[in-house]
């Protein structure tokens, strides 16, 4: 299978799914994290309405990714999930709570406070757990003979807590810039004030992680300080996006801050991918070690190639339908 | 006491899957019913069909949303608690379960939005088409899920090399020996669930004399359906049982509470299976009837539980009693359907308060029967996870400790308790509001893919709201 490496195709599909999920669910989780700090209850209505039509479409990528991993890279599935057992539970519980809060907050008046809490805490816990997954991935897993042999809390280290907080800050930044784009008036003014502070927090965490990671993983050190100078293009582009974001916010641009934040996430993600490539279950197993049988990958590929364009088209259509500013009292009864 | 991660993981999976199953088992039947109602309205233009379709679509939206929320956990549980099994069976189960997800998303993306929010915005024919496609999609979803489950019951089309299953024939693996029996048994169960729920709610509306025309139609329709389907399910269940006898004789032996292989085996109505003594402490049965049902000869041989060593036996009392609950409810369902036919003379079926109350109570029975049926088939194959090839213990996550398993078991019960409370509470409000015409408050922006948004019912009583709109 030299000309037609199914495993490589699947790595691209999963990689695409992960970044789609991070970018898209990222901003609506971020809106949830910022929820308790909003100026008033009417702002919260606007904030929730700005993501209400799209959030569950965003989460389809998570489920698609989970199922796709079992089909294409079962080793990832059967190592990450046991190793991150408690974290996975917290993430799912968080996503469920915020999911039902989306539905019932609008229908509820007396109990609205409780749905607000469910929305905020659910979003925050899920974001933190996802950040911890990134940290645990960088740290690597204790795997022997394709089976996870570590303890239940191996993932919980100062490093993974830092990546957890970092992703929370990053999602909050995505959420703030999304609100700049989608709202006006008091909410937008508040989001403009938040964005620079969140950006500084994100940059601080990114800086610490970048300095720390080479000490956590020798392979990463080798990759970055070896002969492959071309990869420095990613951190440079990420920093350029950060600069653009800073300028766009101070010039009170509306769309640019969100686009710049997407770029910041994208290039950071690519930087992480090239740090580890082609290792998918660190420290030792590559995508080819983790792959399922070629027949299984092919069987599933047919269905996925059929459905991804449809999901993309539908997603694009949804965002098109709900384009423009969300105003108070709209889309809410 | 030592916490056993195996037992706790099995409890957790049973809890999550049982909790989740309640919702799809209802939506599969309901989706077809909604498609039928839309079709009837399309053909006859009688607005009663339209009111019914609108009302049941609201209920569908809420139940579907609950099913999606509770189902997310399932797709991760294979990895968290059963990682060895996931790794071993991934070549087959990965693609099959992914296809279920892919189908569900395709359906949701393309047609659910049109069904829920497209009324009056797309041509009526397009709306009907969307309803039919949603119903079709629920069948395709169950096709993949039941294929995966049946494969674990009667594995085929694979070879086990170094602890991993490799697919040798996709068609043999997907259409494994018990697949079609299980599939049709489950489809009929879903139709019965939908039928009894719609009949029960319609009966309640008739009792409180609300929208009598539409609800008479609905009740009548459901009773005809149930009259055909309840006996059909019994026949199909018999075929399924014969298939199980061929492939999983120990399960059938446990269902019958029969410890030693023999002929003229009685059908036990009541017994207290004692696994340690490997016999029943007390039993009441009808002579030779089990032999007759299973082999269609009074002197036919029925396998015994004791043919396999105790460690390869399922928990007999659980299988035995779950089976009796399922069959017992099935027989009551047949009797109720016949009573409905009898009461049709002179139209008493719509007036007889005792019968209408009975139909109300019957609403919960299909759910109990379905769960009991799943208990039979799932605990009946113990200790096998993949029948005859891999045990539960072999499939468990090696690093899992009892404490972790207990933590998440309690956690999921807590999370689902909240979800279930909110969902059922809201559903009762939707039903109580009934088939009123849409309130004029509806200037909400469309929200595709948000199932619950299709039901515009406030969460609390209007009278208790503070002074905001």
Query: What Rg of chain B do the Cα atoms give?
Result: 24 Å
Note the total helix count of chain A.
13
Query: Could you describe the largest sheet of chain B, including whether it forms a barrel?
Result: 2 strands, antiparallel
Q: How much strand of chain A?
A: under 5%
Pattern of helices and strands of chain B = HHHHEEHHHHEEHHHHEEHH
Main pleated-sheet profile of chain A: 2 strands, antiparallel
Number of strands of chain A: 4
Shape of chain B: globular
Tell me, rounded to a whole number, the average pLDDT of chain A.
89
- How many domains of chain A? The number is 1
List unreliable stretches of 5+ residues of chain A.
none
- Which percent bin holds the helix content of chain B? 55-70%
Membrane topology (chain B): Multi-pass membrane protein
GO molecular function (chain B): electron transfer activity; heme binding; metal ion binding; oxidoreductase activity, acting on diphenols and related substances as donors, oxygen as acceptor
Main location (chain B): membrane
Subcellular location (chain B): Cell inner membrane; Cell membrane
Q: How would you sum up this structure in a few lines?
A:
The complex is a heterodimer of chains A (333) and B (469). Chain A is mostly helical.
Secondary structure blueprint with pairings:
The complex is a heterodimer of chains A (333) and B (469).
Chain A: H1 6-34, H2 41-51, H3 55-72, H4 74-83, H5 85-105, H6 112-139, E1 143-144, E2 147-148, H7 158-182, H8 185-216, H9 218-225, H10 233-250, H11 256-276, E3 279-281, E4 285-286, H12 287-290, H13 294-321
Antiparallel strand pairs in A: 1-2, 3-4
Helix pairs in contact in A: 1-3, 1-6, 1-7, 3-4, 3-13, 5-6, 6-7, 7-8, 7-11, 8-9, 8-10, 10-11
Chain B: H1 5-44, H2 47-81, H3 83-117, H4 124-153, E1 158-161, E2 164-167, H5 170-174, H6 179-207, H7 212-247, H8 249-256, E3 267-274, E4 279-286, H9 289-295, H10 316-343, H11 353-362, H12 365-379, E5 384-386, E6 390-391, H13 392-395, H14 402-433
Helix pairs in contact in B: 1-2, 1-4, 1-6, 1-12, 1-14, 2-3, 2-7, 2-14, 3-4, 4-6, 6-7, 6-11, 6-12, 7-8, 7-10, 8-10, 10-11, 10-12
């Amino acid at each position: 299978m030299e000309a037609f490496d199914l495993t490589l195709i699947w790595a691209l599909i999963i990689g695409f799914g992960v970044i789609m999920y991070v970018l898209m669910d990222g901003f609506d989780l971020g809106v949830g994290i910022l929820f308790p700090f909003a100026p008033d209850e009417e702002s919260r209505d606007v904030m929730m309405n700005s993501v209400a039509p799209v959030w569950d479409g965003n989460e389809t990528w998570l489920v698609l990714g989970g199922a796709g991993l079992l089909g294409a890279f079962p080793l990832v599935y059967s190592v990450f999930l046991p190793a991150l057992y408690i974290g996975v539970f917290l993430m799912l519980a968080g996503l469920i709570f915020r999911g039902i809060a989306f539905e019932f907050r609008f229908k509820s008046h007396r109990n609205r406070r409780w749905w607000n809490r469910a929305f905020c805490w659910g979003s925050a816990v899920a974001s933190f757990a996802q950040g911890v997954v990134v940290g645990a991935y960088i740290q690597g897993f204790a795997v022997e003979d394709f089976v996870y042999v570590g303890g239940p809390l191996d993932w919980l280290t100062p490093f993974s807590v830092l990546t957890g907080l970092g992703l929370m800050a990053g999602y909050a930044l995505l959420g703030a810039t999304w609100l700049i784009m989608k709202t006006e008036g008091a909410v937008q003014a508040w989001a403009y004030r938040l964005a620079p502070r969140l950006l500084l927090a994100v940059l601080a965490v990114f800086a610490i992680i970048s300095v720390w990671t080479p000490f956590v993983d020798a392979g990463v050190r080798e990759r970055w300080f070896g002969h492959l100078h071309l990869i420095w293009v990613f951190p440079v582009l990420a920093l350029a996006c950060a600069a653009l974001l800073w300028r766009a916010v101070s010039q009170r641009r509306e769309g640019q801050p969100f686009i710049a934040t997407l770029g910041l996430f994208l290039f950071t993600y690519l930087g992480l991918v090239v740090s580890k490539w082609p290792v998918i279950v660190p420290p030792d197993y590559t995508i080819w070690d983790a792959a399922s049988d070629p027949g299984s990958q092919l069987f599933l590929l047919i269905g996925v190639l059929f459905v991804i364009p449809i999901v993309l088209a539908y997603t694009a259509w949804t965002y098109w339908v709900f384009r423009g500013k969300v105003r108070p009292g709209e889309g809410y009864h | 006491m030592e916490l056993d991660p195996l037992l706790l993981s099995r409890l957790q999976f049973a809890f999550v899957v049982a909790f989740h199953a309640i919702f799809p088992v209802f939506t599969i039947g309901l989706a077809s019913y909604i498609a039928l109602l839309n079709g009837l309205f399309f053909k006859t233009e009688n607005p009663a069909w339209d009111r019914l379709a609108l009302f049941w679509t609201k209920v569908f939206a809420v139940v579907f949303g609950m099913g999606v929320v509770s189902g997310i956990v399932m797709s991760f549980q294979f990895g968290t608690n059963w990682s060895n099994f996931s790794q071993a069976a991934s070549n087959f189960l990965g693609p099959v379960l992914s296809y279920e997800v892919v189908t569900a998303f395709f359906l949701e993306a393309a047609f659910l939005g049109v069904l829920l929010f497209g009324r009056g915005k797309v041509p009526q024919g397009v709306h009907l088409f969307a309803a039919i496609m949603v119903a079709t999609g629920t069948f395709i979803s169950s096709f993949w899920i039941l294929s995966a489950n049946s494969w674990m019951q009667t594995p085929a089309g694979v070879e086990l090399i170094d602890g991993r299953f490799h697919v040798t024939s996709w068609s043999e693996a997907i259409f494994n020996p018990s697949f079609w029996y299980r599939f049709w048994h489950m489809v009929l169960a879903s139709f019965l669930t939908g039928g009894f729920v719609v009949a029960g709610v319609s009966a309640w509306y008739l009792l409180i004399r609300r929208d009598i025309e539409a609800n008479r139609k609905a009740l009548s329709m459901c009773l005809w359906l149930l009259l055909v389907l309840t006996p059909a399910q019994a026949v199909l269940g018999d075929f399924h049982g014969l298939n199980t006898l061929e492939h999983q004789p120990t399960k059938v032996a446990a269902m019958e509470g029969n410890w030693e292989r023999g002929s003229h085996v009685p059908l036990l109505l009541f017994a207290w299976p004692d696994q340690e003594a490997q016999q029943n402490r007390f039993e009441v049965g009808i002579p030779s009837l089990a032999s007759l049902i299973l082999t269609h000869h009074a002197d036919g041989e029925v396998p015994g539980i004791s043919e396999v060593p105790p460690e390869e036996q399922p928990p007999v009392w659980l299988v035995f009693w779950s089976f009796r609950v399922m069959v017992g409810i099935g027989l009551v369902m047949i009797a109720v359907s016949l009573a409905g036919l009898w009461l049709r003379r002179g139209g008493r079926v719509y007036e007889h308060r005792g019968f209408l109350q009975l139909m109300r109570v019957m609403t919960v029975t299909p759910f109990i029967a379905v769960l009991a049926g799943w208990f039979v088939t799932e605990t009946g194959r113990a200790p096998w996870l993949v029948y005859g090839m891999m045990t539960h213990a072999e499939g468990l996550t090696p690093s899992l400790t009892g404490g972790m398993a207990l933590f998440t078991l309690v956690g999921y019960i807590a999370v689902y308790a909240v979800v279930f409370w909110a969902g059922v509470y809201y559903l009762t409000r939707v039903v109580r509001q009934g088939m009123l015409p849409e309130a004029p408050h509806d200037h909400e922006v469309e929200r595709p893919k948000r199932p619950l948004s299709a039901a515009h019912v406030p969460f609390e009583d209007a009278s208790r709201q503070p002074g905001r709109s």
